[in-house]
């Protein structure tokens, strides 16, 4: 090893050991899920390092409200890594400079495989643009006072994955998280992460490597560390379904749920986050058909009081079984999964294999065709009488209803909001996206028919009804 490489190695390892505290149990950056309240809960249950949710660098720079909510933290929330997505080195640097005083490191998201990342051209959809990534990582590394880290997904081959990792290391990356799945492995086609890619990267680079993927229980943590040689493991879904995954524990779901609700009241977050966490904690219980009504009510709940009520209701139903006062009927689990542990305990949700999913989809398609009969299948034609698909027919109908709307428009060609980087509403009279329009209407007391935001109208109605109430009170007092 060259002297320069050896110095770089010791600096990177010192960062992982001295700054981060040599963490092995790490909670992943999760959009709408790894907010402050959940991070505090996860740390109580054994997490040694947490990431913020993925933050959009351009919005972070321009929107002070977004920035304040994203950087919400406290003394207990350390060490913390702030993660950004984006494709502009200057914008990413501007965002990182605003965040560097609030965290231990800045992470660049190069692993998000979702459709929104494809539209925004960030995450895993940058992994083929190596010159751009070299510029991004080196720009941040040279201009920040905190280290820069990266989170990536693997390529089809180990050789290309290793070359990719070494390129990021040479650009200034001080720690690398390797997800053992490819960009295409998501949703029902997720499948298993391949840890051999993580091990190959770990052996090829001099910086600390974290393994991501397949971490659902503590045994997975130990096995992953042994098989990959990584310095730590990162859990996402495993942590969401069981925040005690790092402690060899499977608590009844109502225990972390009630703790989380108390934390969410102390450290407020959008109610959609709270609802999402409760759905995952009670996933197996809510899959039982007898609890269908509770599942529907949880989906409609929009106050902390309602969330508390639902959690306490589930606790009242299953605590007698948990304490042994009542005997659990195993046949009730059929609607959930073939579980080894009772469904009220926090435990992982294991997806079906991609092969089984594809097989079931094909079987369902054949069954529907047999049921309908191919001869009875409706045929669609265009204006010239040529046969077309149902999807094409629907598109032609939409175009006929709005002939003035452009038929082809790439994301870069769409008109943007005057205040941020989001697309503006096509009918907004203020030329803003819905969020900015809502803020403007609230501050300036306006209505926007295009977005159906009626702040002024509702305030006038409230004043009118208030005056009617006062009028009735005065008349009743006089009489």
Q: How are the elements arranged and paired?
A:
Elements: H1 3-19, E1 25-27, H2 36-44, E2 49-51, E3 55-56, H3 57-62, H4 64-70, E4 80-85, H5 89-99, E5 105-110, H6 115-120, H7 130-143, E6 148-153, H8 158-171, E7 175-179, H9 195-204, E8 209-212, H10 218-228, E9 232-235, H11 237-241, H12 254-266, H13 271-281, H14 283-286, H15 292-300, H16 304-323, H17 354-372, E10 380-381, E11 387-388, H18 390-401, H19 434-444, E12 447-448, E13 453-454, H20 455-478
Parallel strand pairs: 1-2, 1-9, 2-4, 3-4, 4-5, 5-6, 6-7, 7-8, 8-9
Antiparallel strand pairs: 10-11, 12-13
Helix pairs in contact: 2-12, 5-7, 7-8, 8-9, 12-13, 12-16
Biased composition (Basic residues): 389-400
Protein name: tRNA-dihydrouridine(16/17) synthase [NAD(P)(+)]
Keywords: Flavoprotein, FMN, NAD, NADP, Oxidoreductase, tRNA processing
């Amino acid at each position: 090893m060259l002297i320069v490489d050896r110095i770089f190695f010791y600096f990177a390892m010192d960062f992982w050991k001295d700054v981060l505290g040599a963490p092995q149990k790490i909670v992943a950056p999760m959009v709408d899920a790894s907010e402050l309240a959940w991070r505090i809960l996860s740390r109580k249950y054994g997490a040694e390092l947490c990431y913020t949710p993925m933050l959009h660098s351009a919005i972070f720079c321009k929107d002070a409200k977004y920035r304040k909510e994203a950087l919400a933290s406290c003394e207990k929330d350390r060490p913390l890594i702030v993660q950004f997505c984006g494709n502009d080195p200057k914008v990413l640097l501007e965002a990182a400079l605003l965040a560097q005083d609030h965290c231990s490191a800045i992470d660049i998201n190069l692993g998000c495989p979702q459709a929104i990342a494809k539209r925004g051209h960030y995450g895993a959809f940058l992994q083929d643009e190596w010159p751009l990534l070299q510029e991004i990582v080196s720009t941040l590394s040279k201009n920040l006072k905190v280290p820069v880290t990266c989170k990536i997904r693997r390529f089809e081959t180990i050789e290309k994955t290793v070359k990719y990792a070494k390129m990021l290391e040479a650009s200034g990356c001080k720690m690398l998280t390797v997800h053992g799945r490819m960009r295409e492995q998501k949703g029902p086609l997720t499948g298993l992460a391949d840890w051999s890619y993580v091990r190959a990267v770990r052996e090829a680079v001099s910086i600390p490597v974290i393994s991501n993927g397949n971490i659902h229980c503590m045994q997975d943590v130990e096995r992953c560390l042994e098989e990959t040689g990584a310095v730590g493991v990162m859990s996402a879904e495993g942590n969401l379904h069981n925040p005690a995954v790092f402690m060899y524990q499977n608590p009844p779901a109502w225990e972390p749920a009630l703790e989380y609700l108390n934390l969410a009241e102390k450290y407020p977050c959008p109610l959609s986050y709270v609802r999402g966490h409760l759905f995952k904690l009670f996933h197996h219980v809510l899959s039982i058909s007898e609890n269908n009504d509770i599942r529907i009510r949880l989906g409609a709940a929009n106050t902390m009081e309602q969330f508390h009520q639902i959690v306490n209701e589930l606790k009242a139903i299953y605590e007698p079984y948990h304490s042994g006062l009542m005997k659990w009927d195993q046949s009730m689990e059929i609607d959930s999964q073939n579980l080894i542990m009772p469904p009220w305990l926090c435990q992982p949700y294991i997806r079906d294999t991609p092969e089984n999913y594809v097989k079931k989809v094909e079987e369902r398609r054949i069954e529907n065709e047999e049921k309908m009969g191919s001869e009875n299948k409706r045929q669609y034609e265009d204006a010239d009488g040529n046969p077309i698909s149902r999807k094409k027919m629907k598109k032609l109908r939409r175009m006929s209803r709005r002939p003035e709307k452009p038929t082809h428009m790439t994301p870069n060609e769409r008109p943007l909001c005057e205040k941020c980087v989001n697309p503006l509403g096509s009918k907004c009279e203020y030329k803003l996206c819905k969020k900015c329009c809502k803020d403007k209407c609230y501050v300036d007391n306006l209505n926007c028919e295009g977005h159906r935001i009626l702040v002024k109208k509702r305030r006038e109605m409230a004043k009118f009804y208030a005056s009617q109430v006062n009028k009735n009170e005065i008349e009743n007092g006089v009489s």
